[in-house]
Amino acid sequence: MVNLQLFAPVGGYNMNVLENCFFGFAKRSILVNVSNIPDVDLVNLAAALQDSYYANPRLHHISSAFMPSRDEIYAITNKLFSVLFPGFFGRQDLSHHNIAQHVQTELEGLSRHLYRQILQCFNCRKSRKNNNLELRAQTVTQLFLESLPRIREVLFCDILAAYKGDPAAGDTDEIIFSYPATIAIGTYRLAHQLRKLSVPLMPRIMTEHAHSLTGIDIHPGSMIGKGFFIDHGTGVVIGETAIIGDNCKLYQGVTLGALSFPHDESGQIIRNYKRHPTLEDEVIVYSNASILGNVTIGKGATIGGSVFLTQSVPPGCMVTAKQAELRYRNRCDTLSRGLISDYQI
Questions:
Q1: Per-residue CA distances from 282 to 153, 195, 227, 249, 326 (Å)
Q2: C-alpha closest to that of 179 among 88, 257, 92
Q3: Residue 2 phi, psi (nearest 5)
Q4: How close are the terminal C-alpha atoms of the chain, in Å?
Q5: What per-residue confidence (pLDDT) applies to 34?
Q6: Mean pLDDT of 172-186
């Protein structure tokens, strides 16, 4: 018998034990019978894998600058939430006597980990290499941390919008502590600030992790005003070039997406152009509506559930889908003749 390490899930990420974790799974030891391990030709298998690495250079990162750590970026996001929402995330025994020291200590740790991951993000992008990456990463880290009070002010507006817009919310504590939109929108606002500072990779890692946790997909490149609320949230998609004004509200299943992508002369998809919708202030979009393309939904407009929209809407208008036609039939006669199907195609 030999003692092998397998993995068991844990509830969160701890920056102090990341070196002992793999994709958020903590190690635990069990006994395994060596005789049950398959007999694999490891030499030839390793050689075959190595050949495939060099055959597909886009799928490896060998002899290059180190990539950033996804696990550490997840942990940084958790730490940022503990700073933005003290007492809700992270340490619980906070008081007026220890809050100042606590925040300072958290920021000191964050600054080190942020600097390292931002530097790694700059390093691994060849087009961004220069002789001042360390200074650039230091400056970006400082600017990002200095933006946290402003981000918190906008998140406060988002939390209030959720409370005012959801009669099922008992209080703002419930919204902060349990609503998936809080995690998705909060992570987006942090990632969007990093993207504005031209940090590659890290913003998308953050928002895709929030996507995996909440089912809400917000691209960090989108621009979203204050007082934003996503009710329920599952299945919401907000594309890279979408613009959302102040005090807008989306329900579950809403897509702010693009139409078919144009290609250049070489057949490659054209990037970096406005291809997603713009929602002006105070727009409401109900569940499962899809708004596609570079269209504008005017201020105060309402888009009904299950609408498929590819054109602009003037301010103050309401757009609804044609209601389904209801057909009533007396099933007694059908059943008496031995027919059980109630479906028509």
A1: 19, 26, 9, 7, 33
A2: 88
A3: -130, 145
A4: 62
A5: 61
A6: 97
Co-location of 204 and 79 in the same domain: yes
Same domain, 167 and 262: no
Residue in 67, 149, 69 with CA at minimum distance from that of residue 107: 149
Among residues 36, 59, 82, the one where a domain terminates is 59
The two three-digit tokens of residue 115, written as one number? 């600097």
Number of domains in the chain: 3
Pick from 104, 72, 73: which is nearest to 86 by CA? 104
**Mean pLDDT of the chain, nearest integer:** 87
Q: Do 170 and 52 lie in a common domain?
A: no
- 293-316 pLDDT, tens digit each: 999 999 999 999 999 999 999 999
3-class secondary structure, 143: helix
Q: What is the pLDDT of residues 104-162, one digit of tens each?
A: 999 999 999 999 999 999 998 765 456 689 999 999 999 999 999 999 999 999 999 99
pLDDT for residue 126: 61
185 and 279 share a domain? no
If asked whether residues 22 and 107 sit together in one domain, one would say no
* DSSP structure class, residue 281: T
DSSP, collapsed to helix, strand or coil, labels residue 283 as coil
Residues 254 and 295 in one domain: yes
- Domain coverage including residue 304: 222-345
- pLDDT band per the 50, 70, 90 thresholds, residue 205: very high
Return the CATH number at 109.
1.10.3130.10
- Supply the pTM of this predicted model: 0.83
Both 106 and 185 in one domain: the answer is yes
